[in-house]
Design goal:
Chain lengths: 169, 275
Amino acid sequence: MELLHALGIDWKYLLGQVINFLIVLFVLKKYAFGPIVDTLAKRTAKLEQGLQDAAAAKSARTSGEQEKAAVLAAARAESGKLMQETRAQAEEMRAELLTKAKNDVEDVVQLGKERLAMEKEQMLASAKGELAELVVVAIHKISPRVFTEKDEAALFTEAAAVLQKKNHL
Amino acid sequence: MNISLAAEPIFHIGGFAITNSLFVSWIVVLVLVLLARALAKRTHEIPRGLQNVAESVIEVMLSFADGVTGDRKQSIRFLPMVGAIFFFVLVSNWMGLLPGFGSIGINEVEEGKTVLIPFFRAASADLNFTIALAVISVVAAQVYGMRTVGTFAYWGKFFVPPWKSPYIIGTFVGLLEFISEFAKIISFSFRLFGNVFAGEILLAVMAFLAPVLAPIPFLFLEIFVGVVQAMVFAMLSLVFFKIATETHGAEGHEKNHQDTHHIEHPMAVPEEVKI
């Protein structure tokens, strides 16, 4: 007890100091440490969020660019394909048209030829008939003096036969 | 020159003698409360002025604490207690260096001699202050320990029955640990008191011998000692909190769950590596 007194230790002062400290603890916790730790934590969270957002935006941008490039490439390929197809189709159509035209022309020529041949034949036939008649008339005019009626008839048939033969040839 | 180990009463409130160091302690409390209020009034998302300083100080304290606890969550848990101890001690120490402390007072006649009773005495140059803080620190460590590992498990650390694993040795070590809890109070309080009180005497002697320039280097020394002692008090408290909240997982499992011990053990290894 004597020592405690010499050192000035007194439970009343001790208690007073404990209360002082508790006041300091309470006030610092409420007004300083609590809010500041909160602010720091919030700021850290915010910064992290910001960084994350930035990274996400960046990746979105790159993926967007990639997508754009992919779409462009696809479109280009598609258009190239289309062009090629169209060209091929046109080529095909042209070839078709050409062959058709050629065929048509050939047909027309053939038809003309046939018609010409037919006409020629007809003309030839009619000319032969006329010629035979002329021959007959001529013979008829000459014949009373040279040929008997019997000769005439024989001549006719002969001539007709020759003509017939020729015509067949 | 008069040197008194005990703080001297300077006035009375309703029969209760107020000592000079208790009075200064109130001033310290007032200063801290005003600072905290000023800080609370100006908390912004983007820090400026005082908030900037407070934030960087707290950041440094937290990273210091991380070095001890190895866990930011635990650092934040202990921060108010450790920080309050630090600032209370720091402001008390530094306030004792202000001019007028120990030198302004009234002359009283004691046992035929005239002695100066100073109005101001550093709060930490009074054993009542340092013992109070030491008791708070030790009690807080027990409370943290009980809250973390459970009341029964916590006290089981001190009172080991002699029929369990290390037998009598365990019992003895537990008792030693229990005594060391009380020894902490003594070492905490006398370390701080001794440093601050000795500093006061040193400054008083220097001022007495050569009042003009001589005390200045010692003033700087005492400023440094003030920070170091505040830091030592706070850091030791933190270390004791950490030790008290440490779960001796392996020991407990050995006794209670023999089979889960092997599963739990690998988890315990990195914990120990961290420290």
